[in-house]
Amino acid sequence: MKKNLSLGELISTFKKSAKRLEILQEFHIEGGEWENFQKFKRGEVAPAFPELVEWNEQLAEWTKQGKTVERVRVFENPLSNYLKYEILEAYVPCALSGQKVNFVSRKQLEKIVGKKQVKDFWIFDDKYVFEMDYDENHNYCGGRIVDGTAEKEIYQKLLENSISLETVLKQIRLQKTKIKL
Description:
This protein is α/β, with parallel strands linked by helices. The protein is built from 7 helices and 7 strands, in the order H-E-H-H-E-H-E-H-E-E-E-H-E-H. It starts with 6 loop residues before the first helix and ends in an 8-residue tail after the last helix.
């Protein structure tokens, strides 16, 4: 197993599947995403930022090639403004471009992993697991390829206990303050 592959190399070279677990409740990404989030909090509407447009174009191309991209997003109740933003402004367009998006509660995560510390990660082709590091301000700081045996098992259990983006959107539309799993 090559341990020196970067996240970018793994994303650009996967053959069949890319799976993402997102645990952090907020990410601070300089540029278009963060600016659009600030506008969202003020109730303003902004066009999709260029990186999201590019990502969705790539998702659509991977889907045409028969590749699958999916994510399981951990949420806390009530939903944070950032997660509402991600759902409405990023996950919906991503799903329309072919990505499968599912959600699992923090309580469900804790039930599955117990006291084990789990970081955000990607799984590529069920072969490479790339664990991600973030600083205290939720800025991405890099990561590394890890053995991944535990992460693959955790991901599968979370996926089996998750709810779909469609279900979350229905609950938001019904103005639920908490998402029910």
